[in-house]
Amino acid sequence: MRLGLHLPDFTFPDGPAYLGRDLALIARTAEEVGFDRLSVMDHFWQIANVGPKEHEMLEAYTTLGFLAANTSSITLLTLVTGVVYRAPGLLAKAVTTLDVLSGGRAMLGIGAAWNGDEALGLGLSFPPTAERFERLEEAIQICRQMFEGRDEPFTGKHYRLGRTLNSPLPLSSPRPRILIGGSGEQKTLRLVAKYADACNLFPGPDLARKLEVLRRHCEEIGRDYDEIEKTVLFNFDVGPNGERAEPTVAALRSLAEMGFSVAHGRVADVSSIHPLEIIGTEVIPEIADL
Questions:
Q1: Which end of the chain has fewer CB atoms < 10 Å from its terminal CB, N or C?
Q2: Domains, the chain, with CATH or none
Q3: Per-position b or e across 30-64, b if 16+ CB within 10 A of its CB
Q4: Alpha carbon separation from 214 to 168, 188, 248 (Å, rounded)
């Protein structure tokens, strides 16, 4: 089993003037101790379960470019890009640029978006849910077309592109992996079965059922369920001195037994670096063979 570090909070003790320094240190440490991937949210205001709206928030792809420059091997992505925040052609170009400049380390994390307050606050489009899911499917089709070097026109219900030229092409082979976030059974998981290389589910008592729903969608369309990477959100809290490392390992073992190969989430008190070091010495070695 592999771990991903998610950075949803940029309100650190030393403030914005030292945010670049702190993020660079966190990213390098996460890579050094064995985290497989590193993600940020695609939000413009802070979200309620992390902090007040007015807390610091950074634009996702600018931040990922900065993190790429301060690391050398860790995979980089958003959890997850809101489909209506960027035109799909621009999104494909941003992910391609990140992939090329990072040496092939980009994934596309994408979802239907949910935060109408920030979208309307900043003058972004935020159509009804059904339309956002239609746009999500078309955006994935466009991104795949551009990642694969097919530059013919694209005509959909919501997006019309005259020529999907994308030069240079991504370095990831055969293309950057696509992760769809969310656990809606009728729309999101069906899109995962149809298009995604990975899914990202929310923790809870219904996880096993969500996986079974995904399996059924795969069977209906003839997709190999086992080729989809199953990722689950997981908040890491190993305690100030590692006293909760053992329960953390036990929880990860349970998730691995369910079929999850990546646990990806926030680390408590991450800016102090010490929790990352504890995870690197007491958690990652214990789950490496799961």
A1: C
A2: 2-287 (3.20.20.30)
A3: bbebbbbbbbbbbbbbbbeeeeeeeeebbebbebb
A4: 34, 9, 26
Phi-psi region of 182 (alpha: psi -120 to 50; beta: other; left: phi over 0): left
Phi, psi of 40 (to 5 degrees): -130, 160
How do residues 196-209 score in pLDDT, each as one tens digit? 999 999 988 999 99
Give Cβ neighbours of residue 12 (< 8 Å, ≥ 6 apart): 18, 19, 22, 271
For residue 7, what is the enclosing H or E element?
strand 2-7
Cβ 12 vs Cβ 19: under 8 Å = yes
The mean pLDDT value for 28-55 works out to 96
With contact defined as beta carbons under 8 Å apart, do 275 and 238 qualify? yes
Is the pLDDT at 183 greater than 90, yes or no?
A: no
Write out 14-55 in H/E/C secondary structure: CCHHHHHHHHHHHHHHHHHHCCCEEEECCCCCCCCCCCCCCC
The full DSSP string for 190-233 is HHHHHH-SEEEE--STTHHHHHHHHHHHHHHHT--GGGSEEEEE
pTM of the model: 0.93
Task: Judge whether 148 and 176 are in contact, CB under 8 Å.
Answer: no
What are the pLDDT digits (tens) for 70-100?
999 999 999 999 999 999 999 999 999 999 9
CA distance 201 to 260: 10
Residue range 262-288, pLDDT digits in tens: 999 999 999 999 999 999 999 999 999
Across the chain, mean pLDDT equals 96
Assess contact for 182 and 192: CB atoms under 8 A: no
- Give the mean pLDDT of 222-251: 95
Tokens standing for 123? 């003058």
